[in-house]
Amino acid sequence: MPTRLPPLKALRAFDAAARHMSFARAAEEVGVTPAALSFQIKTLEEHLGQPLFRRLNRAVELTEAGRVLAPGTAEGFRSLQAAWRDAGRVGNNHTLTVTAGPAFTARWMAPRFYEFARAHPEIELRFSASLRPTDFERDAIDVAIRLRRGPDDQTYSVPLAFEWVTPVMLPEMAELYPTPESLTKAPLLVDDALDFVDPPCDWAAWFRAVGISHRPEGATHFSQSDHAVDATLAGAGVTLGRRSMVIKELHEGRLVAPYGIALKPPTHFRFICPKGNETRPAIAAFRDWILSEIDKTSAVSDTLTIIPSEDVPRDLPST
Questions:
Q1: In a domain, 17, yes or no
Q2: Domain-located, residue 1
Q3: 173: which of 9, 28, 185, 298 is 20 to 30 A away, CA to CA?
């Protein structure tokens, strides 16, 4: 049984052929002719001492030995590619790729990132607005900002700030609806982005938290939180604003939260990166900056009575 590894080029040819089940398509992927790829695989088979493919009339299929070899070869090349990419990043402190949800990127990141750029002109920031599950290796991502219930043992994870939701509106609209009871007559906007949260943090839950049984009907719904905020800023109505989406507008007085009651879902925004990478200068600088930016508006939260959503009754007693 051979113990010495065969040439890497031959293993690469086998990996491509095993994935495509076609020598022609594999040859195109690795940049050689089909004849050259066939020769590399034949060399590999001679090294192993048994065939890896059955050559059929118009196709190929793996032998038992090929089926055993294929998963390990594929994983080996994935690991090699990841290690090569990570090694290249070690000395690269000039580029930082950050992923966050589209609404968070638009509403929180975009208005602030110039402050980071001004403090760190040597770092080139790249944003990837996405909610897809983060794969740092596959997507070449350095940092992810994600809304999660708790830490992930597989990554370095730092809580940034817990979310809360509270009714927000233009100051002049607050004069029209001075009490929670009067809010039942207001044009309410619905942000559906937190629909996945359990217990719910929707309008019905907020009204129950202040002792009112009211479920808005005929309200306007938005799938993106930033769109709901844009509509609120345009005077279209009152939205149950998420902290991350409205904190800047509340801090600057463009929106107000007149009732002082907020609900807190069981989630935190977290700063996430692969373990060990948190000490990279660019990542550490970005983490420290984002924490300092959050602290600038912390006084807004101090003006609210924040009720965990778990403490909101599911139903109010009948009167």
A1: yes
A2: no
A3: 298
